[in-house]
Amino acid sequence: HVLSTRVQSWYRGFSTKNRSIKGIFPATYICLKPCKVDNEGLFESVIPIEDPVVREVTLVLREWGNIWKKLYVDRETYKFSTVRKVMRELLDWRRQLLTGTLTQDQMRELKLKITSKIDWGNSNIGTNLRFPRYP
């Protein structure tokens, strides 16, 4: 969350994950996104304005990233490889959505593929870590 511009290529702000630590950082370190600010002032909330599917993929990848790391530490080779493959597909599809070069039909089709893959992953990568053969 950017609070102010210090010098032309530096910002002052904080990470939304830990609001208590404020600091300065180079403008090249971040990507500014459009957002909506509710309840400006002491208890404001910042809501990014982006495609809901893109946001969901981002959240899913963060969650699955933790599971993926645990699989690596536990030396679960097959499960680790499967999660990596699914995460790479989601990353690639997310990139395609963000480029803005797809037609409306291609976007709709890709979003269906993404939600289907997320549903598959949540069923198989969740806390019980069942892994049938990857589709």
Automatic annotation (TrEMBL):
One of its GO terms (molecular function) is small GTPase binding. InterPro entries: DOCK (IPR026791), DOCK_N (IPR032376), DOCK_N_sub1 (IPR042455). GO terms for cellular component: cytoplasm; plasma membrane. It comes from the Eukaryota. GO terms for biological process: small GTPase-mediated signal transduction. Gene3D superfamilies: Dedicator of cytokinesis N-terminal subdomain, SH3 Domains. Pfam families: DOCK_N. Residues 42-127 form the Dedicator of cytokinesis N-terminal domain. This is Dedicator of cytokinesis N-terminal domain-containing protein. The lineage of its organism: Eukaryota, Metazoa, Ecdysozoa, Arthropoda, Hexapoda.
